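About this split. The held-out portion is used to measure sequence recovery: a designer receives only the structure tokens and must propose an amino acid at every position. Recovery is the fraction of positions where the proposal matches the reference. Here is one held-out target exactly as it appears in the evaluation file.
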């Protein structure tokens, strides 16, 4: 597969920036709002946004179970910020009714780095990404409290895990799509290509 088709969950969040980053990483990118639009995808990005809103909208639009099935089928999925929360098996500081998709054996704490006015940018060394640190944009970002044996820590910042991978699921606390540096997206596109071999 030379040009994989990768969807961006478009219920809420920074969809356009991910579509651009994927297109510039040699993928065919398209927004996904309905369950039937998951068909034919080689991979999926779950963007940043507001995780409780995203969870509610997934229920309202009957997307929750199809998304879970997509993850369970082993399709490559990349979650940024709220997307990291969505692919966590367990969540701290979430709403009582908040749903996740699962996929990564990790416990994630919502808004761990602080509120909106405490957002920041920082250089993050991420395993598997050549060319030096990536510029991480942390906006009300979560961090990973702990990972299970199946999950691999790819990056830490300030003593906290901020990037993980488990099989075909990748997750970052930060937003690489907001920087113009598309190396993390290129890494994910390569994961998608490898998964299809």
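Reference sequence for scoring:
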């Amino acid at each position: 597969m030379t040009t994989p088709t990768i969807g961006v969950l478009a219920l809420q969040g920074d969809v356009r920036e991910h579509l651009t980053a994927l297109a510039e990483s040699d993928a065919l990118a398209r927004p996904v709002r309905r369950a039937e639009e998951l068909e034919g995808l080689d991979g999926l990005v779950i963007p940043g946004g507001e995780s409780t809103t995203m969870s509610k909208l997934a229920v309202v639009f009957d997307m929750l179970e199809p998304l879970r099935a997509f993850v369970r089928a082993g399709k490559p999925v990349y979650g940024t910020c709220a997307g990291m929360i969505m692919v966590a098996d367990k969540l701290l500081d979430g709403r009582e009714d908040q749903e996740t998709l699962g996929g990564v054996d990790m416990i994630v704490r919502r808004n761990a780095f602080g509120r909106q006015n405490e957002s920041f940018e920082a250089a993050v060394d991420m395993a598997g990404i050549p060319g030096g640190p990536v510029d991480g944009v942390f906006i009300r970002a979560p961090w990973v409290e702990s990972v299970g044996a199946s999950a691999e820590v790819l990056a830490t910042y300030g003593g906290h895990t901020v990037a993980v991978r488990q099989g075909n699921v990748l997750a970052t606390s930060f937003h690489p799509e907001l920087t113009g540096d598309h190396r993390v997206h290129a890494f994910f596109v390569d994961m998608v290509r490898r998964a299809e071999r």
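Annotator remark: Residues 8 and 169 are 14 Å apart (CA to CA).
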